[in-house]
Amino acid sequence: MEAAALSRGSSFIFLVRFLCLIRIPFVLLRVRDITGDRQCAGFIILILVLYIGAAGAGRPLSPLPSKADDDVKKPLQTSRPYNFAHRGANGEFPEETAPAYMKAIKEGADFIEADIQATKDGILVCTHDVNLDDTTDVAEHMEFADRRTMYEVQGVNITGWFVVDFTLEELQSLRAKQRYAFRDQQYNGKFPIITFEEYISIALDADRVVGIYPEIKNPVFVNKHVKWSDGKKLEDRFVEMLQKYGYRGSYMSKEWLKQPCFIQSFAPTSLIYISNLTDLPKIFLIDDVTILTEDTNQTYAEITSDSFLNHIKDYVMGIGPWKDTVVPPKDNYLESATDLVARAHALGLQVHPYTFRNENSFLHFDFHQDPYVEYDYWINKIGIDGLFTDFTGSLHRYQEWTSSVSKM
């Protein structure tokens, strides 16, 4: 019976933690409104607390983020290329939701990655696209029908519902959905958009050291449409949130290893700007060969030139290129690799390419529909330092398997 009680208590605690992430716990604060009795409300909440304390005595409920001693946590692995959970385990759950991040941690991610934008009322949230059309049910919310509009984003006119036109409260009335129709649709409509703060809390509450890899997303667009009363901008708010939760220190420093974090952006001026605000390691993202940088309108050729890499290395510790620019494909077969990785490594820069996806539609024919063959190619032949994947579990299993084989 004692074992059953512990199991029941642990399950209940997990549920409470999960509900905290999706903002349902605030319903508890309204118990008095439902009962119409202050004493009755207090009694109900007291019974709930006592139940958690008694049934879950073997697993104390900690607030988010965890206040547990970091010394007891398993440290970050640094002996092999990093496993970056691209928008969480988004091959299985809708991207950038609490379950996607918690699943990625369970599957062995070294870092969980997120895209950070700002709401109309200046709250930082996790969402990739500037508009909400492809990843939420916003089109089903008739109360927001008049918010559909057109903005110019990086020289392209886009029509839709935009994050910057919604308050946090309005955003969290929406529910996330899977971006790709060929992926599991069963979780559509179940989970809300989460804040930057909630994302951080998920990493800090893990039972081992899990890093974060947030991106300053579309800063030119966000700063044009969202204004803070103190005159600060997205980059300032972004760094302030990291500092609030203790993220600091240069790469591999004691502080960094305790709470690992890479900061990424496609905008070089944002990375240069925050270099005066934090010593956390920064990664310059490099888009496809046809896309200009959003802030400086530089071409791919310009930002991968020796002169630019020599310039940017004073502000960043690595680059994050789209993998098809490192090894370009033709007719879905790989051509010869460029020298980008070698030139970056010669300057002491790490290379974190994106994005690795298990589905056949994303795998080049060279890999024979086998993501393990793709991992092996990039890690052992190209020699990258970490990789962004939608399927954290498969990369973790590959690395565990190959690590065990190498030790035999």
Automatic annotation (TrEMBL):
<protein>
    <recommendedName>
        <fullName>glycerophosphodiester phosphodiesterase</fullName>
        <ecNumber>3.1.4.46</ecNumber>
    </recommendedName>
</protein>
<keyword id="KW-0472">Membrane</keyword>
<dbReference type="GO" id="GO:0005773">
    <property type="term" value="C:vacuole"/>
</dbReference>
<dbReference type="GO" id="GO:0006071">
    <property type="term" value="P:glycerol metabolic process"/>
</dbReference>
<dbReference type="Pfam" id="PF03009">
    <property type="entry name" value="GDPD"/>
</dbReference>
<feature type="domain" description="GP-PDE">
    <location>
        <begin position="81"/>
        <end position="399"/>
    </location>
</feature>
<keyword id="KW-0732">Signal</keyword>
<keyword id="KW-0319">Glycerol metabolism</keyword>
<dbReference type="InterPro" id="IPR030395">
    <property type="entry name" value="GP_PDE_dom"/>
</dbReference>
<dbReference type="GO" id="GO:0008889">
    <property type="term" value="F:glycerophosphodiester phosphodiesterase activity"/>
</dbReference>
<keyword id="KW-0812">Transmembrane</keyword>
<keyword id="KW-0325">Glycoprotein</keyword>
<dbReference type="InterPro" id="IPR017946">
    <property type="entry name" value="PLC-like_Pdiesterase_TIM-brl"/>
</dbReference>
<feature type="transmembrane region" description="Helical">
    <location>
        <begin position="41"/>
        <end position="58"/>
    </location>
</feature>
<keyword id="KW-1133">Transmembrane helix</keyword>
<feature type="transmembrane region" description="Helical">
    <location>
        <begin position="12"/>
        <end position="29"/>
    </location>
</feature>
<keyword id="KW-0378">Hydrolase</keyword>
<comment type="similarity">
    <text>Belongs to the glycerophosphoryl diester phosphodiesterase family.</text>
</comment>
<dbReference type="GO" id="GO:0006629">
    <property type="term" value="P:lipid metabolic process"/>
</dbReference>
